[in-house]
Amino acid sequence: MADRLTQLQEAVNQLGEYFCSSVGVLQGAPEPAQQNGENPTDGTTREPGSEPTVPSSAENAALFASLISRTAQDIDVLIESLPSQAYTPKKQVESLQRLQSENQLAAEKLRKAVEKGEVLLEKIREALKEICDSQFGIENDTPPR
Fold first, then answer.
1. Where is this region: Disordered (predicted)?
2. 29 close to 23: Cβ distance less than 8 angstroms
3. What is the pLDDT of residues 35-69, one digit of tens each?
């Protein structure tokens, strides 16, 4: 996945291609004028309600308008996702220092919690050992049957 600046550059290039293509298509393929349903290019007639097989200039215009507007919206989203100018390197360093101090405090709390846990674990092991020793002592004190 490309970074946001590369995506923005690609979107702007795509928008330029759409503009150039739309101008070229619209200038290069004017729709011929029709009189009484007759096709001026080959003299054939078609029904007034039938659709031509080649997209008309209006269809091309609508297609390119849709592509251009969608790409412009994508560009707006990409621009909004860029970091603001208010986020300067100085503020970034301050933020990193604050995060570093918070991280050190959290690490200290974690170390203390681990130490307490180790002390409790040792007490539990000692209690289990005493229980086992007393159980073995009880079993050894009972007379055999």
1. 26-58
2. no
3. 555 555 555 555 555 555 566 777 888 899 999 99
Identify which has the larger pLDDT, 109 or 56: 109
Residues 29 and 57: their CA atoms lie apart, in Å, by: 7
- Residue-level length of the chain: 145
54: nearest Cα among 69, 68, 36, 41: 41
* Residue listed under structure tokens 């009484």: 36
User: Are 83 and 9 spatial neighbours (Cβ–Cβ below 8 Å)?
Assistant: no
Helices (H) and strands (E) in the chain, counts: 3, 0
Q: Do residues 8 and 78 make contact, with C-beta atoms less than 8 angstroms apart?
A: yes
- What is the token pair recorded at 35? 């009189």
Predicted model pTM? 0.45
* Residue 123 burial (10 A CB sphere; 0-12, 13-18, 19+): exposed
Q: Is the confidence at residue 4, as pLDDT, over 60?
A: yes
